[in-house]
Amino acid sequence: MKIALDPRYAAVADALREAIRGELAAHQIPGFAIALVDREKTVWAEGFGHADLARSRPVGADTLFRVGSVSKVFTAIAVMQLVEAGKLDLDAPVTKYLPEFQPKNSFGKPITLRQLMSHRSGLVREPPVGSYFDATAPSVEATIESLNDTEIVYEPTTRTKYSNAAVTVVGRVVEVVSRRSLEQYVREEILAPLGAKDSTFAPGDALRPRIAESVMWAYDGRVFPAPTFELATTAAGNLYSTAIDQAKFLELLFAGGRAGERQVVRAETLEKMWRPQFPDAEGRGDFGLGFALSRFEGQERVRHGGAVYGFSTELAALPELKLGVAAMASMDVSNTVVTRIADYALRLMLAVRAGKPLPKWETTGPVPPERAKRLAGHFRGPKREVELFELAGRLYLWHGSSRGELRQRGDGTLVVDDRHEQGTVVEALSEDRLKIGDEMLERVQVDGPPPAPLERWNGLIGEYGPDHNTLYILERNGKLCALIEWIFCYELEEIDERTFAFPNDGLYHGEGIVFTRDEQGRATKAVVAGVEFARRETGPPPGETFKVEPVVLVDSLRAAAKAASPPREEGEFLAAELTELAGVDPTIKYDIRYATTNNFLGSVFYQQARAMMQRPAAEALARANKSLAPHGYGLLIHDAYRPWAVTRMFWDATPESMRHFVANPANGSRHNRGCAVDLTLYTLADGKPVEMVGGYDEFSMRSYPSYPGGTSRERWHRELLRRAIESQGFNVYEFEWWHFDFGDWKRYPILNQPFEEIPRS
Is the pLDDT of residue 454 over 80? Predict the structure, then answer.
């Protein structure tokens, strides 16, 4: 279905198209849809990007997205319909309708629907069963029952505590009182009168193919398909809808609750829903009934955002002027981008309504790679310490609980402009001095952070929970931290050796983590805000080598690999000049794993323990090694030049699911050209390898150069190594912190000479 563009909004549509396309390109967002409403008419709706990851199906305004917590608004309307019918009392104890709902409540104040709908009940954020992390899709009854094992976090009415569990209880009340499932009730009493036939809490076979495919992302650089399981907290976040259907809902709001001939909800009821609940002394509050409240450009705004696996949404309205926008994207935790576009849409519409020139969209560009490298480091001010972190030519700001990419405006000013965070301005007054807000920060030298300050934390550090939503426990700047929902990194307060509290802000304030430890003190699970996360086995203990069960015995591959020929290449290449690394700099040490059985396949591949590279690469590596000496470190080489036949054996022996960690012999590898090196650091004082987040040749996420886990000391070692090697013309491989490619590798041919045939230099 297409919406005809209102001529008054032609210039607005043009401005938004340019902004949206720029944001999708800058942040690699697959798909996006938007609709604008003026009074009781949708004046423009359009889709952008692709609805499938194969990029064959374009997004339209009628493409289905998961709208996440925007679902809460529809659940709230359902409740208010029943209030109008005299079937519900917002201020009666909710146990009047759900006597089985009995969370531990030491405050003696009963929980009501009004509290639950405005996030003032004090209930935990997620239920222990059926939480946002739970892919088993338990029943809503089991989900509600599990809340009886939780305690109220705050006294009801006293503090805002956003809770998916609370709205799940609300949805269950609708089911019990109406004697219909929530999906059926909302479909019959709200969506059908709107004509929103493409919206549902339970998509069937007809609608499912029209749902946009979406992606997740993580700080380690991965972008991967989002899971598609249904949430047990249906009322709080499981609605599927389109930009067009969301616009129809906005039309309903601006028509005083009327859709065609049907009064879906009374106008005075909507006005009550848009009033602050439990306001402060000045009459302000964060939430009405189901709606989040704020002011925008001098106007009262009602809105709700949504974030659910792979999707980010925004529904916003200015009730007095009857202007509204619905926007949605198919990338997880890209809400800042979606909300910024929605805000821009409202500003454009306000300008049209006022007859003023349209505001311009502010753009940013990437920080030049050399500037990013110069600015990278730690900076400290009176109130905070931040880290500027460079990787692959991009500059990031670690501050507070998150990391955001820094991009620059036309005047060179740096600003955080990322998928989930935008707007923080960083003025680089020099390479050693920053200004953030009104605070001056100076560069500080961090030369080897100490080990984690408390040894008992070592048994807690690691990964927990499912693949689709992994919890990381790590040490950062002397604090134990929880990186949860991929993006949010919270410093924890230690209560005792098993129990830690979340900070007093963020997603899980008022709640904590309880670890279960084995006899050695190593945690086997973490119960996070009531939800259990089992420890994940990510790799071998420190000092042990990661092993893979070969799909074919290595010895049976030798003859075929020796008889095969490398791929033929066209073009002119430089003459090979393989040079022994230790011959260029005797302080470079060797631990050549493939000359032993101490490697991932447990077989000997080299007859000699040697490490060679093309002479320019070898000399560059020697310069890197020299630069590390003042820090007390040297280079320890695991592998350098690798004959092509060995690359073929690696490929044939490695399980297919792990082959992104080994090179495809059909293309050859940079090791085969004598232009790649695998290495780590050793301490000059004792000759021992340093602590790293993960081990050499470990096929796990810990191998990624920006893997966020581990300790500050481990990550510092990894960054010291990378900076030293990259300063000499190498680039780190995207999947392996230890693997570096020399910049001129394309100028050298694929080689297949065994070590014993290469003269020693």
Answer: no
Does residue 761 surpass a pLDDT of 80? no
C-alpha span between 225 and 227 (Å, rounded): 7
Give CA–CA dist 29/518, Å, rounded.
43
Is 90 exceeded by the pLDDT of residue 281? no
pLDDT-derived band at 452, boundaries 50, 70, 90: confident
Q: Does residue 1 carry a pLDDT above 70? A: no
Burial level of 255, CB count in 10 A (0-12/13-18/19+)? Answer: middle
Burial (Cβ within 10 Å: 0-12, 13-18, ≥19) of residue 753: middle
Q: How far apart are CA 453 and CA 477, in angstroms?
A: 9
How far is the C-alpha of 723 from the C-alpha of 265, rounded, in Å?
61
Q: Is 432 exposed, middle or buried (0-12, 13-18, 19+ CB in 10 A)?
A: middle
Class of CATH domain 455-536: mainly beta
Strand 41-49, strand 31-38: pairing? antiparallel
Average pLDDT, the chain: 96
Share of the chain above pLDDT 90, in %: 94
Of 3.10.310.10, 3.40.710.10, 1.10.390.10, 3.40.50.300, the CATH number of 7-354 is 3.40.710.10
Which residues in 643-666 are b (16+ Cβ under 10 Å) and which e?
Answer: bbbbbbbbbbbbeeeeeebbbebe
User: CATH 2.40.128.50 in the chain, residues?
Assistant: 455-536
pLDDT beyond 70 at 185: yes
**What distances in angstroms separate CA 186 from CA 112, 488, 737, one per listed residue?**
21, 33, 51
Domain 554-757 coded CATH 3.10.50.40: no
Sign of torsion over alpha carbons 106, 107, 109, 113? negative
Neighbours of 286 (CB within 10 A): 17
Q: For the chain, where do the domains classified as CATH 3.30.1380.10 start and end?
A: 554-757
Q: List, in sequence order, the alpha helices (H) in 607-749.
A: 615-628, 644-653, 712-726
Q: Which of 497, 736, 756, 757 is catalytic?
A: 736
Q: What is the pLDDT of residue 449?
A: 82
201 pLDDT more than 90? yes
Q: Is 302 left (phi over 0), alpha (psi -120 to 50) or beta?
A: beta
Consecutive H or E run containing 473: strand 471-476
Would you say how long the chain is, in residues? 761
Question: Any idea what the Cα angle at residue 546 is, between residues 540 and 552, rounded to 5°?
Answer: 140
Alpha-carbon distance of 603 to 720, in angstroms, equals 31
**600-637 per-residue burial string, b: 16 or more CB within 10 A, e: under 16:** bbebebbeeebbbbbebbbebbbebbbbbeeeebbbbb
- Maximum distance among all Cα pairs of the chain, rounded to whole angstroms: 93
Torsion angle, CA of 599/603/608/614, rounded to 10 degrees? -60
CATH 3.40.710.10 in the chain is located at: 7-354
736 labelled catalytic: yes
What is the C-alpha to C-alpha distance for residues 93 and 85, in angstroms, rounded to an integer?
18
Exposed e or buried b per residue across 76-89, where buried means at least 16 C-beta atoms within 10 angstroms of its C-beta? bbbbbbbbeeeebe
- Torsion angle (degrees, nearest 10) of CA 745, 750, 756, 761: -30
Q: Is the alpha carbon torsion for 303, 257, 83, 240 positive or negative?
A: negative
> What pLDDT score does 541 carry?
84
**Which is nearest to 77 in space by CA: 300, 264, 318, 276?**
264
Question: How many beta carbons lie within 10 A of that of residue 224, not counting itself?
Answer: 14
What residue has token string 């011959």? Answer: 583
**Distance of alpha carbon 455 from alpha carbon 233, whole angstroms:** 39
pTM: 0.94
Mention every residue, 6+ apart, whose C-beta is less than 8 A from residue 29. Answer: 23, 49, 329, 330, 331, 334, 337, 419
Spatial contact of 240 and 311, defined as CB atoms under 8 Å apart = no
Answer whether CATH 1.10.10 is correct for domain 365-444: no
Closest CA to 459 of 535, 540, 547, 545: 535
